[in-house]
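Protein modeling request. Please complete all fields; requests missing the sequence field cannot be processed.
Requester role: graduate student
Desired output: 3D structure, token encoding
Chains: 1
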Amino acid sequence: MSNVPSELQYTKSHEWVRTLPDGVVEIGITDHAQASLGDVVFVELPELGRRLSVGEAYAVVESVKAAADVYAPVAGEVIAVNSELAQAPEQLNADPYGAGWIARLKLTDGGAGAQLLGVADYLKQLEAEEQA
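Delivered output (132 residues):
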């Protein structure tokens, strides 16, 4: 079973959201997503200042197996990107919830994604996917 930290919120498409103390949100892909992709070799990061809508593709993660879009779990303006991923994309595999974060957003009005899942619901989804 994948690592699923209880303090985060999740999407059905395997992205996570962490609210930082200053109200900024940090976003990335889940342990399940990175494991499904395999060894990550490249990450295309969003541009600073870009405004994202919930569900909008904002980054691309390429692995030895495939390339996958990463979707915004919340709406907001990109105020920081993890530029370390350009030189060390494998951080997404090694530490998807820490050093592998992708972007930080300042939420816009209505920015919180209504479809965000708590840890219990996300775990149920993972179990259902594994049984399918």
